[in-house]
Amino acid sequence: MRGLFAQGLIHDEAQTIDDCWNRIGIFGDKSCPKLPEHIHCRNCAVYSAAATRLLDRYSFEQEPDEHNAQPMAEQKVATRSLVVFRLGGEWLGLNTVCLDEVARMQAIHSLPHQRSRALQGVANVRGALVPCLSLVDLLGLDPTVTITPSQRVMPRMLIVAAHGGPVVLPVDEVDGVHNIEERALNAASLSGEHASAKYTRGVLAWKNRSLRWLDEEQLLGAITRSLT
């Protein structure tokens, strides 16, 4: 409505201006007595004043319209950032708030006399030894289930900010970090084979896949327990 109102003002303004340059000026019959002095209408104060009035009205039209801008802001879709990765035959998503880095796979050095089944050992991360845990064991996944990738993929390490410090979680493939609509996440539910899934908020359809959305707080709690 504001745009139409402004356009109307511009039209009304144009109607009230005496466009003498079109009647007796350079674009008319050239009978204006001031024309010999100014050579061209654009050099005349009357022409300049008329142009200024129209430009002022155009500036008014281009001013931000707060009444129209507010609904546009409300239309922004709320999203949440997840790192999407694969373990065996299952795709999972983890909130990026607890993700420090996605790194290349490094050698994992086993530890003697370790008591935790999930603790695989330690890995060198930027010169520091960081505990490395198996998400397959933590989540209770079937390690024998695999898929054939559609293209050449490389295993990666998720470096997660756990309660006691960084922890390495090896994964088979990382699809990337994606913003997923909150409404899709809120609609995710647990049913069927995922009804008893550990540390899981829900399962949703994503890119023709079934994506298991992990509960980061429960998962980080399980990681802490595995290291103590």
Give a structural overview.
By secondary structure, the protein is of the alpha+beta class. The protein has two domains: 73 residues, no CATH class; 148 residues, OB fold (Dihydrolipoamide Acetyltransferase, E2P). It is 32% helix and 32% strand. It has eight helices and eleven strands. A five-stranded mixed sheet has the order 9-1-2-11-10. The chain has a three-stranded antiparallel sheet with strand order 3-7-8. A hairpin with a 2-residue loop joins strand 1 and strand 2. Helix 1 runs antiparallel to helix 4. The chain is elongated. The N terminus is likely disordered.
Salient structural properties:
five-stranded mixed sheet, alpha+beta, 228 residues, Chemotaxis protein CheW, CheW-like_dom_sf, three-stranded antiparallel sheet, CheW, OB fold (Dihydrolipoamide Acetyltransferase, E2P), cytoplasm, 2 domains
Q: For the CA atoms, what is the radius of gyration? A: 33 Å
Tertiary shape: elongated
| Annotated CATH topology of the largest domain | OB fold (Dihydrolipoamide Acetyltransferase, E2P)
The CATH architecture of the largest domain comes to Beta Barrel
Structural class computed from helices and strand pairing: alpha+beta
Characterize this entry briefly.
Helix content is 32%, strand content 32%. By secondary structure, it is of the alpha+beta class.
Itemize the secondary structure elements and their pairings:
Elements: H1 2-16, H2 20-23, H3 35-38, H4 45-62, H5 66-74, E1 79-87, E2 90-95, E3 99-104, E4 108-109, E5 119-125, E6 128-133, H6 135-139, E7 156-162, E8 165-171, E9 173-181, H7 182-187, E10 200-206, E11 209-214, H8 216-226
Parallel strand pairs: 2-11
Antiparallel strand pairs: 1-2, 1-9, 3-7, 4-5, 5-6, 7-8, 10-11
